[in-house]
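It is worth pausing here to work through a concrete case rather than discussing structure prediction in the abstract. The textbook approach is simple: state the sequence, then state the predicted structure, then interpret. We follow exactly that order.
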Amino acid sequence: MSVLVCGLVGRLVIWLLQTSGPTSRIWKLHPILAELGECDLCLGAWIMPVMVALFGVNLLSPIYVPVVSEVLTGWMYAFGLHLARLGWQAKFGVTIISSE
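Step two, the predicted structure:
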């Protein structure tokens, strides 16, 4: 259960950081920060290891190395959430085709 909750809360935090007003001013400070704020995979690579550490999730269950396990598990979560978002957008997103 905590595996699913960690993913859902992590995706919500990523979305909030991408869309909220105070962080949008931070993203405008430098072009590299703007790229980080627009890319959910990039932002997830930083956010998800923290979420995994807070929730105590370890997908590398038989092996546990204190910091490495959280980082690798967080990156796996970030990649999975990125693929889920792309799939959701492809299935339910709106694409506008204009002749201009």
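Step three, interpretation. Residues 38 and 79 are 15 Å apart (CA to CA). The radius of gyration is 16 Å.
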